[in-house]
Structure formats: C-alpha cells, structure tokens
Amino acid sequence: MNRPPTHSPFFGYSLHQSNRQYKKGNTVSNQLTRRLALLDDDAHRGLLGQGLRGIERETLRIDSQGHLARTPHPVQLGSALTHSQITTDYAEALLEFITPAEHDIGLALHRLDAIHRFAYTKLGDEMLWSESMPGELPSEEEIEIAWYGKSNIGMLKHVYRRGLALRYGKAMQCIAGIHYNYSLPEKLWQLILASEGIQEERRNALRDFQSESYIATIRNFRRYSWLLMYLFGASPALTKSFLRGRPHQLEELSNDTLYLPYATSLRMSDLGYQNDAQSGLRPHENSLESYVTSLMDAVNRPYPPYEAIGTKKDGEWVQLSTNVLQIENEYYSTIRPKRVIRTGERPVQALCNRGVQYIEVRCLDVDPFEPVGVGIETGRFLDAFLLFCALDESPLISAAEGQVHARNFARTVKEGRKPGLTLTRDGEEVALQAWADELIERIRPVAQLLDAEHNEPGVHEASLALQKAKVADPNKTPSARVLEEVRALGSAAAFGLRQSRLHAAYFRESPLMPAEEAAFAEQAAASLAEQAIIEQTDTGSFDDFVAAYNSSTLCGNHS
Fold this sequence. Notes:
14 strands
C-alpha cells in the first residue's frame, strides 16, 4: 500500500509523525505525554488561555406557523454582504450569526446570545427555526436564493448560490448547522517547535510547522469525529418535504415525518450536501500541499454534466463555472483548515501564502434544546477534544484508512445509538461505547490541564462527566431526546415549531440593554453604508469580474 510522502517540498517542511511512537487503544502516546508535561509547566500553562474560538450559527427565518419566511433579509439587521456578525448563508431566509473570536467559550456564547436578542427586535412576527433540518418547505421555485446587492462581489456570491441550487437543489440551502472555529496561540506552536529540537533557522519554519500541526489535528479529527456525532447529533428525523421525492431508506414515523430509529444526525448522512461530482473528491490531509493541490484540481477540472448546462441560461448567469467545484468552499467537509482572507483573495491563496491560522469544525447540529443552538458544555468538551487532537500523535492516513474513518462516521450518524454497534479500529471491530469511554479517558488529562488554568475550576472535566453519562445511557443523547419529543408530538415539524416558539419567547422577554442595542444598530447602519460605497465605486462588467476571479492564480506565492 503506497503512503503519501512525509516531506512536502512545496511548502519546504512537513510535520513527520513517527508511527513507531504511536500507541493504539487507550494508551497515552509518548508525544501527548511529553506535550502535556511541557504545557503543565508554570512558565507555559498560561498559553492555553490565549487560544481563540468563535461560533457561527445558521438558522432559518420562519413565520408564526413555522413556514419558511418569504421576506427579504431584514434591512434593519444590516447588509448581508458586509456585516461581520449578521449575514445570510445559502437561502435568503437562512441567517448566519458570527461571534468575534474569544479566549473563552463562555464569552463567545454571551456574544451569540446578544446577536440573537438584537435580531429578535427586527424580526417582527417572524422567528428563528430551532433545528438543523428545516420544517415544511415550499416548492423549489418559492425558495429564494440569498441576495447581496448589485455589486460585482455581491453578484458573485449570489451566482455561486445559484450554482449550488442547480447542483444540489434548494432544499439543501435550508439546512442549518453550528460551525466552531478554533485556534491555538502562535507562541504555543513556537514552544513545541523549540522543545522538539526542530531548527527554526529556515525561513518560515514556524509558519510551516504550525500549518502541518493543524493538518495533523485534522487527521486526528477524522479518526475520532464519530464521537462528536454520537454525543451531539440532534437530527434523527426530518419532514418528508425535504426529500422532494428522492429515494431513501428512512422509516415513516408519521404522515409528515421520516426517521431512523438509532440515527444521531441525518443532516450529516448522505442525505446532506452530496452529489456525484463531489463523490470522488477526497482531499488528502497528509500535508497542506496535498490538501491545497486536490482542491485546486477540483476547482479547475471540468465536469461534463455541468458543462452540458453551461454558465449562462438565456443570458443569465446560473453558475460560476462548469468545473467539479465552482469555488473551493463548495467542497463540503466536516472540518477545514482556514486562514482569514484579505480583500480580493481566495481561501486557498490565503492558505498557500500565509499558512493555516485556525480550523473550522462544521459537523455540529443545531441543538434544539438550546436557545442559541449550542450549549456551554458542548463548547467545553470541544475545546478539550480539539486540544487532544492537536497534541496527540497523528500518523499519516492511507486511502484505505481514510475509508475506514469515513465508514465509522457514517455508521454513527445513521445508527449511533444502536445496541451493540461496533466501529472499525486497527482492523478489528470494537464496541462504540467501549471505544468512546476509552477516548474520553484519553482526553481527561487534557481537560485537567485546561481546568488548571481556568478561572472556573473543574468545568472541562465536568463536561467530560456529562459526555460519559451519554455513552453509558444513549437515551441521554440529544438525538434520543429529540426523537422522544417528535414521537410524542407525532411530527418533526411540530417539535421544531414548539422549540422555536419557546426560544422566541426567551429572547423577547429579556431584551438587550439600550447601549448594546444601539451598538448593534450602529454596526448595521455602517454595514449598509459600506455596501453602498462598494456598489457606487464598482468598475467593469460582471462577466470580466468572474473571468478574472476564475483565472486568478490559486497558489502563486509560497514564500
């Protein structure tokens, strides 16, 4: 079996992980032990408090009866094109709330709560849908694609979404999720780099070490992310209207509801953002170079069915290109390496030129029992889980191993609560519950280290205890709780509407302080003014703009 090279000449450095040091099962690896000891030193422990995390919460606007809102993005919320915290995602009705990056998840959730409260002052009779999977949907023609104004960049975002509608259908543009952005401070990577005897003299040694360390984190995430789906999956059922008559293997719960009895997250199953074009696309995550190269190939490789459609119909743009991917962000992944992009820059260019800055976890369902869609205990566990993935050994993943990880993930999203369910580890079948317990115990020293520096003692380890309880009793998982409520009400849509009404009342009953609301209003007005300036100063045709965007060198400067 051929393994990808451990050295990446394209970036000049690769984080070589020795398979000899990696210990299987629940044994703590040499590397994890060494790095935990390093960070537990009084001189270094403070670095753990300098990491950043931010949350992106997607949520549909609905009317008082739970139907998709048909109104434009409320202008009082600001410009969806330029507002940094309130925008739209795919459908015009799919709001996206983005928190600033914070050193503690508690602060990020406070920010997210405030955004929700401000939004509710501008929604009128509308509400925010409480679940990942939409309720009853209208026909495809009646679902509006997000609009960002008449500027070239605004039209680029809109046409990209037209392409998504063409390729995946508009119902897909109504799915909501939670994205968790996570980074460790550069000084931590610098400390580890020095402690492991790697010479920094070479240009960009720290940048490349940090990038490959994040890529190694992603590999471990691939190994273990099934655990997140078991613990936090919250979409075991959906409305029939979502499937648009597509074939499926779901069971009928009621006249309007389909489900799988042991599913954790149908959103993350093959019912989500999948199509034939993406089916063969598996970017390698053994180095940043291989990841970038595979995405560049997909953005530039024609796909015959899309070529048959073309980029225009009756003179109107319908997609940005006829390639496998219109842009690199179209690749749907449970986790991504990211870098804040500069004006006019593409995501892959940012990664090539300046390396990986943070990772974006994209597999979390909206928690319908939490008004903001995600709870603090989830965030505490994620912080410990991701730090574990960053510090532990992370051997390279062969193509065959990658298929095993994908199969474990798929098994968990469709039947994670099934009694006696097994997953594949090191060529053997192991019980999900046994492996989950082992993994949580391996994470425990990381949680204890985080607690040692936190101003609220024991909070990360307490989160581990809550997760262990879910492993011991599947009925305590969000997916089991959702299914119990859906069964009682007889309808997934009825459950979603009930939770949406509860959350709406929660936010409306305690509005923001006047100063907070004024700050949000000022930010909204500033974003509208910024969009107006962009539209007034635009030059050149949209056709030329798209041509320039599509022909831009994805990776020109690797210095």
